[in-house]
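Pair request: fold both.
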Amino acid sequence: MTGWLEKLGLGDAAARSTRAREQAAQECQRAAALFQQGNVDGAIEIFNRAMELDPACFEASRQLASLLLSRGDFDQAEYFSRRALSIRPAAAAAHNNLGNALKHLGRREEAAAAYRDALKADPQLAEAHFGLAICLHESEQFEQAKAHYSSALRFRPDLADPWHNLGILLEQQDDVDGALEHYLRAISLRPDSAAIHLNYAMQLLARGDFEAGWEEYEWRWRLPESRASEAFIDRPRWDGSMPRGRTILLFAEQGFGDAIQFSRYAREVSERGARVLLKCPPKLKSLFQSSFAGIAVIADGERVPAFDCACPLMSLPRLFGTRVETIPAATPYLQADARRTEYWKRKIADRDAALKIGLFWATDNPAKSMEFEHLAPLARIPGVCYYSLQKGAAAKRAAQLPAGIDLMDYGGELRDFSDDAALIMNLDLVISVDTATAHLAGALGRPVWTLTHFPADWRWLRGRQASPWYPTMRLFRQARLHDWSNLMQVVAGELRRLVSPGGHGS
């Protein structure tokens, strides 16, 4: 029989096919060794060579998909995952790779289906449980996500990511203690992860454990995006020692609201005898100049004078040993420009209303923003005139008023926070979502109702209606995720009580 095959040429073809498969398998081993040595490009090149030798080589396609995922080439990872599945349709690892590629490409439903296919092939594949949990988590199917995170940990308790993500999920359900427990488990498995430490820090702060929380919060500087944004990473850092006689640069590191909240410490540093330079975004420069006498305010992009050491504003609570009961909460610590304040006083003097109220309803963060329609419960409350403090694209919605809302829109005249401050000084109350406007009103010592999303940001702590950071602030908290409608009914009820005969302030 062999002779006849050889005469037909089939024996040679079969032998060549066998040799090709063997050579492809050897190339896969070489590629895997290169990958272990950190040579990803070399490994990809040899896996491609293996597929040239044997187009039906499952391992080459599967491994290529994995490597391309690690390199962020998700389109090609999808292609090679599907190629691997065409060779071996029931391969759990290939389905999992496909899920990972599709998830990164933003095709969440397809990714979830791929992870489910992986689990049909291997119900104990922890990585597939984890991937499916992420898809469910992102679509806010929290209980199902929790179940699959837990399954991933049942099969692979040594994986840090499911512990971390389950902590995030519990945090989103306002379970601070549960989140802390899971973050600690994740840290025990991956002690050098800045992201996990930072989430742990914010939950410690939310619980009011400032001593441990501020220490953990310093891990933010190990995040790549944080280090890239710090212009003074290589300069001497102030360690909190007596600053008298030294020039200390304090700089805003995060958003406008954070800069406003923690700028209060600039005066504390100055009062200890330091010459203080305060570096901030340009839109805060005028406000800070009118607020901090004897402190040189420098806008981002301007030349920085010589200094001895630097410190980010949000590291100052740690250096001052701030606890909940020792927050420097005296307000106002910001001052509006007197001429601008007088301008706005004249501008709105003709509005005959019992209460002049500023409104801010949307930020760049969708979770902290409401739709303009959610303001409808504030309509037809007698004796109230509203003023839009809204910025950005959402400000354009102010022209589309819910019926019965008397809203004045001067957004075009609010060029920076000094203008905002001057207008706020002429208002009786500010009602704002959790954004810089709420911080500004509180720092000016003006009455402000801050509307927080669920769960509230760490700085507002848990279970409080008053803020230890701002004595004139009242917190209105969502009871459930995205539930602005019920929250605004509560706010409207409180506002009606405020303007009714016998109402007792804000």
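--- second member of the pair ---
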Amino acid sequence: MTDSYNSSANVELRYLRLFETAQDGILILDFETGRVQDANLFITNLLQYTKSELIGKELWELGFILDKEAAVNIYKTIKNSGYVRYEDLPLKSKSGETLEVELICNAYNVGTDRVVQCNIRDISDRKNAERKLVMAFESIIIAMSKAMESRDPYTAGHQKRVASIAVLIAEKMGMGLDQIQGVQMAGMIHDIGKISIPAEILTKPIALTDIERQMVRSHAENGYQILKDVPFTWPIADIVRQHHERIDGSGYPLGLKGDQILLEARILAVADTIEAMASHRPYRPALTLDATFQEIERLAGNTLDPEVVDVALDLFKGRELIKDILTH
């Protein structure tokens, strides 16, 4: 390789060509002020700003992030750690269109100057495809739920109510939207394994025999076997399999303990217990809400996750919210 290839002029030219032809948007910011020093062609086309409109501006001044506070927090993170990454960030173009992007910013030195390079990738098409996939999975879930409803109305109504309770708990616990969707989907079909159990056992108005109880207990594993090959974007099959596991290891089918159980399954366990106790069953009347919550409080830390129980108790302390769910 010739010396001219590695000359400072040629290195700079190669960098400039890479910068201008990159298929990701690139912004170069001053490390101290956070103001734009340079912008490549891709980002100007994406944002519909000219380069001169971008130079000298801070991110929030461009509406780059949807609000000033978010932009300021992002730059604080860069100043503290020299790196920040967001895999799903809303971004506004000059026309006001909201795009979905992946943002990665790194700080580094150029000679004696310190700069921040922000790479911005438009993932709007990918996110739209993911939403369509989620809608397809939702259709599968609804179809499965309806199949249960046609066979056993008690189970179908129970699943819907458990899903509603579990979603509220997940939201209160601060789970992300994607995880909450997974909780909802799993809740809607967590008893799908009961489709293999004779209806006369599921609706039996007296206590079950030991053999019948074992058949009913098999529904968690049966549900896993039904769902394990469906390519959900969430661990639906594992959540369904684990919703009767208990933190002290007394649950089934695997006898998992504590954090061995998925958080989504621990949430479903609490929601499932609340709904089952507070709803009428063929073999017993419903408990009062006060009795139901006294019982899950007693079970907290023994069989049910105490953090999830605390959230549920706080969430439903007024009782009206849970009453509304249980009557629909």
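Observation on the second member. The first helix runs from residue 8 to 21.
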